Amino acid sequence: MLARGYSLTTTADEQVLRDVGALAPGDLVRTRLERGAFDAVVVSVDDRVDDRGS
Length: 54
Known about the structure:
With about 55 residues, the chain is an all-beta fold. It has strands at about 10, 30-35, 35-40.
């Protein structure tokens, strides 16, 4: 999956993130890529759906 260009983001307690409703500004997340990972702090959350319906 990661080799195809996807990433996997988890919450601080290592739960897979599927919905932005699980996040709040200031939360820590970890994103795994094909080659490595990075940690980030959530600055803002936008639960609007884009024009493609995703």
